[in-house]
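Objective 1b of the project was to move from sequence-level analysis to a structural picture of ligand recognition. The entry below was assembled by the postdoctoral researcher (A.K.) and checked by the PI before modelling. It contains the amino acid sequence of the target and the SMILES of the bound compound, magnesium ion.
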Amino acid sequence: MGQIIMHIDVNSAFLSWTAAYEKQMGIDRDIRTVPSVIGGNEQSRHGIVLAKSTTAKKFKIQTGMSLMEARQLCPNLLVVPPNYRVYVRASKAMREYLMSFTPDVQVFSIDECFLRFTDLKREEAVELAYKIKDTIKEKFGYTVNVGISDNKLLAKQAGDLEKPDKCHTMFPDEIKEKLWVLPVEDLFMVGRRTKPKLNRWGIYTIGELANSDYYLISTQLKSHGRMIYNYAWGRDCSTFKTGEPIKSVGNSSTLKFNVCDHETAHVMLLSLTEMTAWRLREANMNCRVVSVGIKDKDFGYAAKQRKLDFFTDCTRDIYINICILFDELWDGKPIRQLGVHVSDLESSNIKQINIFQDELSKKNEILDKAVDKIRSKFGDESVIRGVFANTELSPLLGGYPDDEYPGMSSIL
Ligand SMILES: [Mg+2]
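Corresponding predicted holo structure:
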């Protein structure tokens, strides 16, 4: 009886959570049953599809497509704006529920978790997986996929098989029939850039990758090549990381246009800082290190951080320092992406006397809390700073809390 790993993945998370939330709020519709998408600001003409309903999928609408394109494919499309606060709350509720089955829960992304069990037989694991899937549906009103195996990689691959509302196993003895037959781009960490390279070498399925020339893969694709080669064999040596406290919070946003002046960049940074600071306060944390990252139009990247003299969760404190850092760092090249991060966190329950903080920032702290309250009651954009009014800029940029989920975009 070895370890059992389950991968829990919310089906069309943003759409499902929005639907469940609307039901809870007494809104008389189910956006899952009509052609609908969760999408950014439609008026800005730059919004994209973040999630789509199954009916929308039938119109060939795809995630990442612009809302304009999506509308052309389906004129009656219902576009629902994203509500990250609902997603963060829904994610947390699911995570807490999953902890009632095992204390070993590793958060992988906002809508994905791994569970570990050490005392289950295969058949028992499958039975439990169905129970988890069905009770989530009953309790929370949305569906999940559950993948079952003995390591995280295979559990995740299993969870990605047929969706929605399904449980699948992918144990090592099932790799040949269930994993190797899949197209190589279905393997975790084989992205858009790797796929054409593999295809050029005649590798189209995961099985072909597993049985390819290891020397070629290793020399051409370096450590990433060695990793995906091992993944193709179902090997995953990563450790199971449970209950890690949040180490940093941040947001970055690829901009809709290249930014070439300080003023616009500062407005963007304020937008990113607003969301970051709000998330920091939501997590009941204060930060002492703030950092800014700039990606220019040629994908050159630079970052800089500074340690403050005090711990803070105040938008203004963070913003002022972010702007100073930005001004020191920026070389004037057109900017493609901006990021704001805060780290060196401590719980805000540890109240320290802050001799460095000035009167104004104390007032701002109170203001932040009031704004948070209003926003949580009346919506993200009910209170916006003057600089954002009459602009196309979003007052709260980013908001996709991937940094809280360390494993989201990199390796398991
Ligand atoms: Mg999902």
